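Q: Sequence in, structure out?
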Amino acid sequence: MEYQEIVSRSKNVLSIEPKPIPEEKLSEIRDKYVKRNKKSLEMFEKAKNCIPGGVEHNLSQNHPFPLAMDRAKGYRVWDVDGNEYLDYLMCGAPIMLGHSYSPLDEKIIEIIREKGPATGLTCEYELLAAEEIVKNLPGVDLVRFLQSGTEADMAALRIARAYTGKKKIIKIGGSYHGWSDQMVYSLHVPGSGPLYSKGITPESYAHIVDVKPNDFDGLEKAFKENAEDLAAAIVEPVGGESGAHPVHPDWNKTMRELCDRHKALLIFDEVVTAFRLDMGGAQKYFNIMPDITVLGKIIGHGYPSCGAVAGRREVMSVCHGSLGNKIYVGGTLAANPITTAACYYALKFMAEQDAVKKATDYADRLTKAMNDLFATRPDLGFFVYNFGPIMQYVTTGFFSVDIAAPDALKQVLTRKAVADNYQIVTSSEGLCSLAGTRMYSCMQHDDEALNKTLGIWEHLLSLIPKG
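A: Exactly. Output:
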């Protein structure tokens, strides 16, 4: 789906009052949810005694309570009550080969058995993994492993500032670049500013320049006004929230040109897009080369302690050198044998299996099939679009609300509440997705998965009154 059609359809969704499921039906659905998830509820109640809020995971469906998962295989996951789900969360995007991919897991088990999990010192897989990343990503010469995408984002900003000797960073509203103090700004909804800033000092945002997505005039103004002290611009190359705020076709190109003109660095946050959108990442997909690339869980195929910052040799040179001339980054478990071996073998298997193409072909088919289904209910305005195996489905459009509107907060909360109730339905029918807006495919999703997915959405539509 082209950018202009996405924008037009999003506006149409916002022009429609969200249609809730009638309360009598919703009450039955909630009862069903509780009955089929008794062990998850029991775990949640116990967890509240020792875990803040009773849940650790940002990607959990928390309404009415989070589900506790037991195991995963292929494109399926099972919860502690034995319920089976079609998984489109994929651990937040890194799973491309399918869960518990045996050839990969066997390699890791062998390493643990024969070598141990970590020494805190260099291992051979650190080199092999770095070489594999460099081979695939065209904008990358050097790689520095870290332990999460958040750490990698923090390091990327530090590298940019050290290399340029400047301080300011342009951030695009609605984008997510981890949870460090300086990046928790205009999260999720563009223009929302310090909405999530509890516990963060205002000084943390002193050098962050917020620009609305696809605001070309605002972007050029931000570059001009901060040119003397602008270190970098950081972007999600498909748009904020992995494309929930999709980029205009000329956005990345303009960003590259403005960075070059004002001697600033371009940072691509490819925590989701690298090795998912393309084996060469968004940088190859869009043919726009960043100076710094941020990598996260995708490079370890879901194995923990996983992240990296990478980039051009000249820029990355500030990560080494004499005392006083290099940045400080650390992490005892960064580049451990388990994570780097998972990276090396996962990337090899993904290339051998043509995993990106298989996952993309499936996403293309499912996107078309869902749009055909949604076309039967024009009164709702639902639609789906995808960037390869990254699918965004829009039901109530709460991500697209203009924060400057007089009733913006009410709109967001109302539309989010209705979307949450839709997700109770799809979850109760066996669909696992992300935040009521997103689905990721892997190479193992097949016709059975597609047909069952359509059946679940068809059931949801049947519960929403027409008119």
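The chain has a mean pLDDT of 96.
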